[in-house]
Each structure stands twice: as C-alpha cells, then as structure tokens.
Amino acid sequence: MAFETREQVLEKVIAKEKPDCPHCGETMSLWEVPLMTMDDGLGWGTPYLYVCFNDECTLYESGWKNIEENYGRRASYRCMCYPESGAYECMPVWGPQGGQGQIIDDEVIRKQKLQDEKTEKGLAVLAECLVSEDKVTVQRILLDPAEPPRVRLKAAEVMGDVGDTVSIDALKENKYGNDILRKGVEEAINKIHERHYTRECPFCAEIVKKRANVCKHCGKEVAGE
Ligand SMILES: [Zn+2]
Ligand SMILES: [Zn+2]
C-alpha cells in the first residue's frame, strides 16, 4: 500500500530529533524529496531527508565558488542527511530558493500529529464497534471522507464482519477516492453476501438468495448454486 508506506515513513521521521548541520550547526529542516526526482531514478531512495537551508552555511557559501571554479556553472550544495542512517551528503542546488518548497515545516508536522491521533482514536472506536456489532457507526466512519485513510480501510474490513445486506446499496453508491479503499469495500460487500447467503442478481443488481432460481425483483431466471 504505497500511500501508507510514505505515511508510515513520515511518522517515523517526525518522531526523531532533527539533526544539526555538521558545517554550520543549524538545525536541519525535514525535506520531502520531490516525486518527480524519484520517478527519474535520480532519487535518494527515501521519501524524506534532512537538509540545511541556512544561507550562511559554510558548505553552501563556499559551494558557489567551488562549482564556479571547477565546472564554470552557477550552482552550490546544501548539506543533507539521511534519516535512516544519519549519513551526511551534498545535494546540488541551482539557487537560494532551490528545494525550499519541499520543506516540511512545523505546521505540517503538527497537522500530521493530529492526523495520527485521529487515526489512533478511529481504530479504537472500530475495535469497539466490532465487539458490539455497531454497524451504524462503522458505516458512518467508512463513508466519511474526513476520516484518515487508514481508519476508513479498517472500517471497510469491520463492515465485512458486522454489516448486513441493507448497507450494501449505500456502500456501492458512495464514491471512493482511492483504489485501495474501493477494493476494501468490494471485499466487505462480498463478505456480507457470504455471511447472509445472498448474492447480486446479474440482471437487476438487486440482492437475491444464493440458492434462488428466479429473481424476486426482476423475475429473470438466476440459476441457484
Ligand atoms: Zn549548514
Ligand atoms: Zn433481478
């Protein structure tokens, strides 16, 4: 699940202390590697890095001169650090603004933390719903786009265990933003059918008994199993 992996990596990185730049001593910024770079195969093999964006950093200041003298080009380096290994490296930049758009500032981190809390809470509510078979709450969470993706995916799973055939229409009519969730809901619907010995009429899409020979809704022949 690609979107979860990235999310989980960020969770881990946020929990860590930001390192200080070995060249200037400033606290480094958490930086999201642009997707474009990753697709080009020029990525650093990680979605997040720490970067020193201090314009007075000695590495950055001397970089302009070094590159100009050695390569005759207008560029410099920023110091970067891998969150996993803690190893430092140089990242080429072509201007003082280069890469600054990907800085993950404290506001983003705060929002991410709120989202994490919401996820934790949502999962706890769903665990209770599973025990009490509270399908109404599970359905509400599943259909609520404001709920975190991981919570909605879990809600789909729980729905398969506690939902009844009455819920199927609402689940089918809702639009889901991503394929993983859509698949989760499909699996939930299949599971609900299984638990209730029902299936969908191939002609009118109404719910019929698994063993029915004739659809009670459209009257067509639907050979029983
Ligand atoms: Zn620095
Ligand atoms: Zn039918």
List keywords for this structure.
single chain, 225 residues, alpha+beta, four-stranded antiparallel sheet, two-stranded antiparallel sheet, 8 helices, 48% helix, elongated, binds zinc ion
Structural overview:
The protein has a 4-stranded antiparallel β-sheet. A two-stranded antiparallel sheet has the order 5-6. The protein contains 8 helices and 6 strands. β3 and β4 form a beta hairpin. It is an alpha+beta fold. It folds into 2 domains: 2-102, no CATH class; 116-189, no CATH class. The longest helix has 27 residues, at 106-132. The structure holds zinc ion (2 copies). One zinc ion is lined by residues 201, 203-204, 206, 215, 217-218, 220.
What's the alpha carbon Rg, rounded to whole Å? 26 Å
Straight-line N-to-C gap: 35 Å
What amount of the residues lies in strands?
A: 5-15%
Bound molecules: zinc ion
Structural class: alpha+beta
Q: Helical content, roughly?
A: 40-55%
